[in-house]
Amino acid sequence: MKQTEIQAAAIARGTDKVTREHFYVVKSDSSDRWYEVRWQVNAWSCNCPASCQCKHVRAVNEILRIRRATIALAMGGQVPAIVAKLQRDEDRKLAEAARREAFVQANYIYE
What we know:
The chain contains two helices and four strands, in the order E-E-E-E-H-H. Helix 1 runs antiparallel to helix 2. The longest helix has 29 residues, at 79-107. It has a four-stranded antiparallel beta sheet with strand order 1-2-3-4, with helices on one face. The protein starts with 10 loop residues before the first strand and ends with a helix. The protein has one domain (11-107). Strand 2 and strand 3 (34-40) form a beta hairpin. 45% of the residues lie in helices and 20% in strands. By secondary structure, it is α+β, with helices and mostly antiparallel strands.
């Protein structure tokens, strides 16, 4: 397994008592540390030292993908098809953001 993949996912969802915002904490594979993943403007961000979309954000996105599908199936009717389309749109956005980030990282000239 690559270092950029979560090996043993330990993810918990929390709610900020002041702002009422939901966030996730994801356990590090290499230490006892937990990283916070929060929604910032239009994307998830993590407080880990990674400079691009990290494995903690990808783990949260995977959990959300499963959660959406489970809820949609429970609702029945046209909801599963609608949620599947919305998820495909979200996956395309995430893939495009990852491509942009890879391009920036590959062409970054300042240190």
